[in-house]
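Hello Y.,

Per our agreement to keep a running log of every chain we model this quarter, I'm adding this entry. I've kept the format consistent with earlier entries: sequence first, then predicted structure.
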Amino acid sequence: MIRARRRAGGRPTREEAEALTRRLLDSARSTFARKGIANSSMEEIAAELGISKHTLYRRYPNRQALLEAVVERDLVRFRKTLAEAAGQGEAPLAALRDMAFRYFRFGTDRDYSAFYLSVTAEAVFSLPLRERLAAWSSAALEPLVQAIISAQAAGMVVPGSAIEICHVLIDLLEGANNRVRLCLSESPDASERLRLFESRWAVFQTAMMPEPNRPLGV
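Predicted structure for the entry above:
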């Protein structure tokens, strides 16, 4: 393995600093998922990484700042995944379906979902955390909401609150996600995952597409 050379004076290079940030956020997310936010300490996260707590505190002054950094990185990844679907020039309904499928695939990742399910469970008892979770969710789902608005403008989704329609779609997809997350196989069959998604998408079409635009058999 080729290691990045350190600068004069022993300061880490930018590549080394970025690698440490990735490791730190990965470790923090794993610890938060296993123990919950309230039961995770900065000292424990630093110890698991083999760094001093002072190194950790220089980057993130407290646990909330570290949590925000973990979520912000995931939000960037998530929104980029959805934006890739929006940027492919597909028809509005096809773009919405592609986004929904990408959401579904993102949510079936066990490491990713374990963290957010843990945060959600803890938020039930914490109003400040519920408020942050609502803000994170709104930011994450904005591309889907915009895709629904585009599909509505094209007459392919019924009029109404795009946010409420998005919530219906997410509720359907999360039900399918839970079936994949809790299946006994460590590597769920791709065809079964696609079947689960298609069944939920069909329900969404039945509920939210104007009748003349529904495919035959729906």
